[in-house]
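Researcher: Quick test of sequence recovery. Tokens follow.
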């Protein structure tokens, strides 16, 4: 059987199989990704005020851009490996528990950041973006982050804390964990801070912990979110339909996974400057 179902989620079995079957699964996986992207794009168009009858015109314009782009269509798939490589990361883990990419660093989460973190999470849209919410108070966060199944870092930009990134559900036997990230300073979002922190964290997971897999859960089923993850090498693993309650009703959960071998294949080469 090529696909198994669990709680409305389509997932891939972890067992040897012929090349033809792997290709068929990959094709189905890609098709599911395209459906997700299409739905997310449609919702974004409606949110921007595009009328339903105008969506067809948008599709026509997309075809025009497709014809114009021509041979440049595959450039997005190699975007991050032109900006990041193992050589771009400054590894000071043994001497100072710090990993840096350009002006962004990660280091073990300081207790002093709990109060500021509680303020960042106070915005309902930020708090609801996580599948499992963080605690609501600084006092509760102390116990939360001390759990041995978690490993969190402060994200520093030019030496100042601006967010957090870390691991949930760490499974040493299986060599896998879930990644979660937040750039709390709203005025600094969109500057590539989260991308650099992500690269440093993935280095920590794959090169220092020697884990084999990182996965992410997201309620944000839109083009930008899926594209950002895929450019780091993440691949769609499944969709959990109507998995959680949200203020608007219920929401789907997307899971994407990244294997160490794929990450090394993408980022072990020299990169240009970002």
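Model:
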């Amino acid at each position: 059987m090529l696909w198994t179902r669990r709680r409305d989620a389509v997932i891939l079995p972890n067992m040897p199989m012929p090349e033809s079957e792997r290709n068929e699964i990959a094709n189905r996986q890609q098709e599911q990704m395209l459906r997700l992207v299409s739905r997310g794009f449609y919702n974004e168009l409606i949110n921007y005020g595009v009328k339903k009858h105008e969506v067809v015109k948008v599709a026509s314009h997309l075809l025009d851009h497709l014809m114009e782009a021509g041979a440049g269509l595959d450039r997005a798939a190699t975007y991050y490996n032109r900006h990041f490589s193992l050589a771009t990361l400054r590894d000071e883990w043994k001497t100072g528990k710090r990993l840096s990419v350009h002006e962004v660093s990660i280091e073990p989460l300081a207790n002093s950041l709990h109060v500021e973190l509680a303020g960042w999470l106070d915005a309902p849209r930020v708090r609801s973006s996580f599948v499992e919410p963080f605690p609501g108070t600084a006092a509760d966060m102390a116990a939360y982050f001390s759990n041995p199944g978690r490993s969190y870092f402060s994200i520093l930009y030019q030496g100042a804390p601006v967010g957090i990134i870390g691991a949930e559900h760490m499974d040493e036997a299986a060599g896998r964990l879930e990644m979660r990230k937040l750039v709390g300073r709203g005025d600094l979002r969109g500057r590539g801070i989260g991308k650099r922190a992500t690269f440093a964290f993935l280095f920590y997971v794959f090169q220092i912990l020697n884990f084999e897999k990182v996965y992410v859960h997201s309620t944000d089923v839109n083009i930008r979110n899926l594209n950002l993850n895929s450019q780091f090498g993440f691949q769609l693993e499944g969709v959990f339909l109507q998995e959680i309650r949200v203020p608007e009703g219920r929401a789907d959960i997307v899971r994407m996974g990244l294997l160490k071998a794929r990450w090394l294949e993408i980022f072990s080469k020299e990169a240009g400057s970002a």
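Confidence is low (pLDDT under 50) at residues 1-12, 69-77.
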